[in-house]
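Problem statement: downstream parser choked on a complex file, so we are re-checking the raw output for the protoporphyrin IX containing FE run. The parser issue turned out to be on our end (a line-ending mismatch), but while we're here, posting the original submission so the record is complete.
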Amino acid sequence: MMDIIIALAVIIVIFVYLWTNTTPKNFPPGPPCLPVLGSIPFLPRKYLHCVMAGSWMDKYGPVVGLMFGTKKALGVSGAKAVLEVLRRDEFQGRVDNSRTRDISFNKRLGIIFTDGPYWLQMKRFSLRHLKDFGFGKADMGGLIMQEVEDLVIEMRSKDTVQMYGLFKISALNVISGVMSGMRYARDDEELQALVNNLDELVRRSFRSGKISNIFPILKRLFPRITGSNEIMYYIKNAYNFIQRKITEHKQVLNENNPRDFIDAYLIEMQKGNSNGNAIFTEEGLIVTCHDFFVAGGDTTNNTLVFCLLYMILHPQVQNAVQEELDSVVGQDRRPSVEDRQRLHYVNAVISEVMRINPVVPLTVPHRVTKDTNLHGYTIPKDTMVLINLWSVHHDRGHWGDPEVFRPERFLDENRNFVKDEWIISFGAGKRMCLGEAMARNTIFLFFTSLLQEFLFSLPEDDPPPQTLPLPGMTMAPQPFRVKITRRI
Ligand code: HEM
């Protein structure tokens, strides 16, 4: 009897091993792979992008094979491989798992986590209609500058400011302005609540770990340990906020006069309902608006905070930015987007901040949509792809001294700004960031206006801020304070 039990146990172990370790023939090499868990125990707990570009690249090359439980995944680093997967059509899908469905009514909705014809239609529609309401245009019809002035007024009354999250309200207000025509006072409770919700969401969905995404049953069995209850709570709160705006819009909707993105979407929804093409739905609108908030708030804030962090660490760079602003713009008016082409050093500084600490070091995971090949390896359909933008920004062969903060690398011998194609903070190809133009304008106008008005320095007793970011879905600077002195 004992023999049979042992034999059965051995068979089960072998079966589980084979079931969970079926990497296809000619799959790229990578860290070791355990039964059931795959490579998860061998993944670094933080800063995966650095390990991918460092020891993994040395050991396995630019394309690394991984197993997240039974799910196949690739890590891609280095400019050649990264640009290739960002541009090849069959790498432009998005993963579809319990986590992505949790945040979209258990369906595939919105832009960030969809693919195929639905995604294409939503992305095109969003780009077209967001533009109608000022998205990406200079200062978006005054939206951005209104936020700049509000923040400047608040800062004038302070000697020191905590930088963590300083620009979140402004960034969300700009997005909300285009989306729903509404902006809120900086101390508005509804907006504050949305900011906190999104913040918790970004932090907790990362902290919930990967195992529960691979074995969704764990979320049902251990909602507290996996954090899934809290995540759903924060998502629901954010959805309720958006739902309230949609309800208000529906009550006064005028088909002939759309005022903002929500109006335009509701009108499209009505058209679809009347001709039997119900691809535009209210749930889809909620998830799309949520996508804009999640993708745009944290990223814009973190980039701006990094800009000021480097100004404090490099006062001579801050002086040079202010000298350029004084000579090109002066002190009698605020900088405008039209000034950008004449502010060569400012452009170099912003590019260098975005190069050295890209706030999205790995793109949102992509998915392979059909069996294919990459660098001689066989890549099956549905493999998840982690694309390492950070590795391109830190390529020693291209930049020479990637770890050094040196804005001059973007200036030619006449000190004119020179764009570098190796800066891919917003991704590249069809999946490229939808908010790039808006984010660039927001960052430029806030950075230049604040440096025109204030000198930023380290408070006397504070230690210098760390450039190492906090880990998370996006990279945020660690909290630090600045001392502010008015210049004008
Ligand atoms: C500094 C600011 C920002 C940075 C660095 C950034 C960067 C990125 C990156 C790297 C991606 C992923 C590309 C990929 O998966 O291949 C992305 C996607 C996206 N971003 Fe941004 N982003 C920023 C601001 C914004 C803003 C302000 C919005 C909108 C309000 C926005 C909306 C989106 C959307 C909707 C996607 C998904 C596109 C798709 O899946 O087709 N982003 N962004």
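For whoever reads this later: Residues 282-313 form the longest helix (32 residues).
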